[in-house]
């Protein structure tokens, strides 16, 4: 069958146009494939770079641990205990030393390079899920906080003491200890206001968080609500895993004597294998806090106290202090502590002390 010449020419043109179109499509596909290759290559290079810095961090951990002024005691109760309670991740020996060993600020800086995470305020769960997005080092995630703060920022963990309801089940007072204490008590309460200590410490803790964040400090809260159940050792572990530069445990006091009033700050006594590596720095922070709190509030100065019996101190691998911000059993002080203005004074004093301690002022 033959087409008239004009039909044939039209057919030829159609075929040419069709072929040209196919060629264009091939070129487009080639270009697209090229672009995809480039994107994949860039992603791989980035991943390699990140993994490389993690490894660098890992080796820095071991070197910082070996060069730490206080090496672990022969029996190393903290290491055993830390493994037993599952503080470590399943990844490598390197990360195991990070959480069990005596971390110093050097270690903090090596870990901080990984991810720039916005300041955490939502508690441990949020932070650990964010960290999983970083490449190496996080093959498994623990339930407690793992924080990778921005490179230069200092990290402060704030623990508002107690919680709505205490938990009288027991836990060891320190790593490997046979002596046990209640996991967390419900605290005291305002003799006039009826405000529970846990509510006061949370309100002050949240104010302190905001004040520190305003100074560029990364803040991790052990809790931001009343209805939690976090033992004192678990709170210390949150601070350890956050590689906190400072761990601040806010409490208020109670006494049988309603005339007793004033502020004092507690810090850990040096116990070999537990707190010997943090006692000095903790005492320094406690002294600064005591001075600044008295100056800011005008409260009675009750001085600082070294304590050996506090679970939240004995489990801590980072410098820690505990301000007892006043006596809720003293009518006048209870009412002061209930006021926003007085809470602001407390926060002002503590912020000043923390900035001083961290060398930011
Ligand atoms: Zn308390």
**Strand element count:** 8
Overall mean pLDDT stands at 74
Order of helices and strands: HHHHHEEEHEHEEHEHEHH
Terminal Cα span: 96 Å
**Shape field:** elongated
Number of helices: 11
> Could you say how many structural domains there are in total?
1
So what's the CATH class? Alpha Beta
- CATH-derived topology: Aminopeptidase
The Rg value, from CA coordinates, equals 29 Å
Major beta sheet summary: 6 strands, mixed
Hetero compounds: zinc ion
Strand order of the largest sheet: 4-1-5-8-6-7
Structural class: alpha/beta
Please give the CATH architecture. Answer: 3-Layer(aba) Sandwich
- Enumerate the spans where pLDDT stays under 50 for 5 or more consecutive residues: 35-40, 43-148
Helical amount? 40-55%
Which key features would you list for this structure?
alpha/beta, 361 residues, two-stranded antiparallel sheet, six-stranded mixed β-sheet, binds zinc ion
Explained architecture:
The chain has 361 residues and is α/β, with parallel strands linked by helices. It has one domain: Zn-dependent exopeptidases (Aminopeptidase), CATH 3.40.630.40. It is 47% helix and 14% strand. The protein is built from 11 helices and 8 strands. It has helices at 5-66, 77-85, 93-100, 105-111, 124-131, 197-213, 232-241, 279-297, 311-314, 331-337, 340-357, and strands at residues 155-160, 167-172, 180-184, 218-221, 246-253, 263-268, 301-307, 320-327. The strands form 2 sheets. It has a 6-stranded mixed β-sheet, sandwiched between helices. A two-stranded antiparallel sheet has the order 2-3. Strand 2 (167-172) and strand 3 form a beta hairpin. Helix 2 crosses helix 3 (93-100) and helix 6 (197-213) crosses helix 11 (340-357). The radius of gyration is 29 Å and the shape is elongated. Mean pLDDT is 74; it is low at 35-40 and 43-148. Bound molecules: zinc ion.
């Amino acid at each position: 069958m033959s087409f008239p010449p004009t039909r044939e020419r039209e057919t030829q043109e159609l075929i040419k146009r069709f072929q040209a179109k196919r060629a264009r499509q091939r070129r487009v596909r080639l270009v697209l494939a090229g672009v995809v290759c480039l994107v994949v290559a860039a992603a791989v290079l980035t991943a390699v770079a990140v993994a490389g810095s993690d490894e660098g961090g890992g080796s820095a951990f071991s070197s910082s641990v070996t060069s730490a002024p206080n090496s672990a005691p022969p029996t190393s109760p903290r290491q055993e205990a830390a493994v037993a309670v599952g503080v470590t991740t399943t990844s490598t020996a390197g990360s195991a030393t990070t959480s069990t060993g005596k971390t110093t600020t050097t270690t903090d800086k090596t870990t901080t390079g990984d991810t720039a995470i916005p300041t955490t305020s939502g508690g441990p769960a949020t932070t650990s899920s964010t960290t999983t997005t970083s490449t190496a080092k996080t093959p498994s995630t623990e339930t407690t906080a793992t924080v990778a703060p921005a490179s230069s920022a200092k990290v402060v963990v704030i623990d508002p003491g107690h919680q709505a309801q205490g938990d009288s089940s027991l836990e060891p007072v320190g790593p490997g200890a046979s002596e046990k204490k209640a996991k967390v008590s419900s605290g005291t309460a305002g003799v006039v206001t009826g405000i529970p200590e846990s509510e006061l410490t949370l309100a002050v803790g949240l104010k302190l968080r905001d004040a520190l964040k305003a100074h560029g400090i990364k803040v991790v809260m052990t809790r931001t609500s009343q209805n939690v159940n976090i033992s004192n050792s678990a709170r210390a572990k949150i601070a350890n895993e956050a590689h906190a530069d400072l761990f601040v445990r806010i409490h208020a006091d109670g006494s049988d004597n309603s005339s007793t009033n004033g502020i004092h700050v507690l810090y850990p006594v040096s116990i070999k294998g537990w707190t010997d590596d943090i006692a000095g720095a903790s005492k320094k922070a406690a002294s600064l806090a005591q001075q600044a709190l008295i100056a800011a509030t005008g409260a009675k100065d009750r001085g600082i106290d070294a304590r050996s019996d506090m679970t939240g101190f004995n489990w801590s691998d980072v410098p820690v202090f505990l301000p007892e911000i006043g006596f809720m059993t003293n009518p006048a002080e209870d009412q002061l502590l209930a006021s926003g203005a007085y809470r602001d004074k407390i926060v002002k004093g503590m912020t000043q002390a923390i900035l001083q301690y961290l060398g930011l002022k």
